[in-house]
Write a structure and sequence with these properties.
- It contains nine helices and no strands.
- It has about 260 residues and is mainly alpha-helical.
- The protein has two domains: about 140 residues, no CATH class; about 80 residues.
- Its main location: nucleus.
- One of its GO terms (cellular component) is nucleus.
- Keywords: DNA-binding, Nucleus.
């Protein structure tokens, strides 16, 4: 496994995995999400279960490959050419080497502890998978394009530094990090807000649904459209949260004032 392969991470849910697979097979971009949702709703329970099982198998294989890669990796130490190396430098080099080996061993142990995937790893709101794939093995190349950014708060005052000097240093470091974070584009809200609006949009783009109407749908079918709307709303909220977190403090303050004015 090379470095590029080791950095591949699989989608966090079966639905996101299916949408990526759907767009890839159609050679289209992410704007085809509504077509993917429509395909998801047409699957039977047996087809959904096959998709769940394949997702768990792909994720397990990925973690096994990652564990094997970490077990073979060697710590990188750049050799420094010194004619007369002192005893202290030799000791320091050995300490760095031992620390690197311990870090790799800890990463391998953590990876091995997550090799077994249970049903709890799949979100509860996912009640139906999306599309059956004749060649599901191609999904091993899918990458997760959205990564969550963890924010680590820096306290302004601590018991060891009641005068606030430690907090000032952390504030300066935080500002430097904030400048390096690119500002994301503000996401657009979903064009549909209810299950009925989603049904009407899909009906306008599909000839197979020309004879159907919202009033003739069963309660179970209407519930599926409402679940699809919740997925779109949750995706929009997640993107908007990432957008707000990427804003500098001044722009975030102005955005807050404009919202409540």
């Amino acid at each position: 496994m090379d470095v590029k392969t080791s950095r591949i991470s699989y989608p966090k849910s079966v639905i996101s995995w299916y949408l990526k697979l759907f767009c890839k097979r159609r050679k289209s971009d992410k704007n085809k999400m509504l077509e993917g949702i429509q395909s998801w709703l047409t699957l039977s329970k047996s087809e959904k279960q096959q998709f769940f099982n394949k997702y768990k198998e792909c994720r397990l294989n990925h973690k096994v490959k990652l564990a094997n890669y970490l077990s073979k990796v060697q710590p990188y130490l750049k050799k420094k050419v010194v004619k007369r190396a002192s005893t202290n430098n030799q000791i320091r080099t050995e300490e760095i080497k031992v620390a690197s080996q311990k870090e790799i061993a800890n990463d391998l142990e953590e990876c091995n502890s997550h090799l077994h995937i249970d049903n709890d790893d799949i979100p509860d709101y996912i009640d139906h998978p999306m599309l059956t794939d004749d060649n599901p093995d191609e999904a091993h190349g899918l990458q997760n394009d959205h990564l969550d950014n963890d924010v680590i708060p820096n306290p302004m005052l601590t018991d060891d530094h009641p005068d606030g000097t430690h907090g000032l240093q952390n504030t300066s470091s935080t500002r430097t990090k904030e400048k390096s974070i690119p500002v994301l584009a503000e996401p657009a809200p979903p064009s549909v807000r209810t299950g009925k609006e989603l049904f009407e949009m899909l009906k306008a783009t599909s000839t197979d649904m020309s004879n159907e109407s919202w009033a003739t749908l069963s309660n179970q079918q209407k519930m599926r459209y409402q679940q699809a709307i919740r997925l779109l709303k949750n995706d929009y909220i997640r993107k908007y949260k990432a957008y707000l977190e990427s804003l500098p403090p001044k722009e975030l303050f102005n955005c807050y004032n404009n919202f409540f004015d």
